[in-house]
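Sequence in, structure out. Go.
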Amino acid sequence: MDPISPMEQALHAARALVLADLVAGQVAEADVVSLVEESVAQRRWWVEQWPDGAEYVAGLVAQDVQDALLDRYGRWPLCPVCGSGDPHALDVEPELGPAPHWVCHKAGVRVAAIGSLGSCAGGAPAS
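Output:
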């Protein structure tokens, strides 16, 4: 069996992290998982063009899925920090960088690392 390349490892890790957050938010339906797969396929090309960007893939896949969900279903993941006012989604920071995490810009706090929404109440379904 051939070893898995660092690029494929990064793509598999990104898939797993985003799926964990979707499961935490109880939105990991088949059509949503397909959005993850589409993003991973597109990002595979991106990483092939820029191998040094492999450490940024998890944040990019999370943003891709978040954008696709907004277009089809609504905001995701909803902020667990702000209990009043209009529901709003968390954002990925850094937009292009290592160690991506979910943040609430309204409250100015880091909520969870990508893949760790299950450890907080931030995995609320899209709305």
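Check: The chain has a mean pLDDT of 91. The longest helix spans residues 30-49.
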